[in-house]
Amino acid sequence: MPIITALKRVKYHKDRFNLFIEKKFLCTVPDYFVEKLQLKEGIDVPDKIIEEIEQESNIFRASETAYRLLTMRPHSRLELRMKMHKRGFSNEVINPIIKKCMENGYLDDREFAEAYVKSRLLTKPRGSRMLMSELMGKGVDREIADEVISKAMAETSEEELAFKLLQKNRNRFLKQKSVDLKLKIRNFLGYRGFGFEAIRKATNDFLRTIDDEEYNFDEEL
Q1: How far apart are CA 66 and CA 83, in angstroms?
Q2: Mean pLDDT throughout 108-137?
Q3: What is the pTM assigned to this prediction?
Q4: What are 191-205's pLDDT values in tens digits?
Q5: Using CA atoms, how far apart are residues 181 and 218, in angstroms rounded to an integer?
Q6: Quick one: residue 23, left, alpha or beta (phi over 0 = left, psi -120 to 50 = alpha)?
C-alpha cells in the first residue's frame, strides 16, 4: 500500500497540511481531517482512504473558495456556482456548499439584489428594464427582482435617474452635433433600460439646461 512520506503544516495556514504519498504531493487537507483519520508520516494508506482524502481536500478547497468570494462582495447563487465551476469544482461538491452558505446566511439572492440595485443606482444609473434584465441574468428570481426594483424606484424616479445620468455625461453630449443630439440622447437612455416617458422628460429637462443660443431645442420631443 502507498505510504505517507511527508505531512507538512502549511506555513501561512496553520489549519491545514500538505500531504505527500511516496514522496509526491497529493493534496492539502484540513487539520481536523488529519486528526480524524489519524494520518501521520510512515503509515500505509489504502487506496480507498486516499480517495476519501482527495474528496475531503476538494470539498475543503471549494468551501474556502466560496467563502473568499462571498467576503469580497455579495453574490447570487448562480454567480457563485458559475465562478466555482470555472475553478474546476463539480456540482456534486458545489451543491452542499451553496446549501450550507444559504443556511448560514452568507448567500441570499434578495440581499444580493438589494445591494446590486443600490450600487447600480449610485454609480451607474439604470432603468427598471435593464435592472430587471441584469438581475435575472445573474439568476435572481423575477418576483424577487421586481420587488427589489420597485422598492428602490419608490425612493427615487426613473426621470430623476435619467436626468442625473445625462448631467454626469454632460460634456460628452455637448460635443455632439445639434442635428442628431436628441436622437443620441434617447438612444443613450434607451440602451440603459429607461422607459419612454422617463427618456422624454429627462431629455427635455437636460436640453433646457444647455445654452439656447448655441443649440436650438425649443421643440419638445
Answers
A1: 9
A2: 92
A3: 0.74
A4: 999 989 999 999 988
A5: 13
A6: left
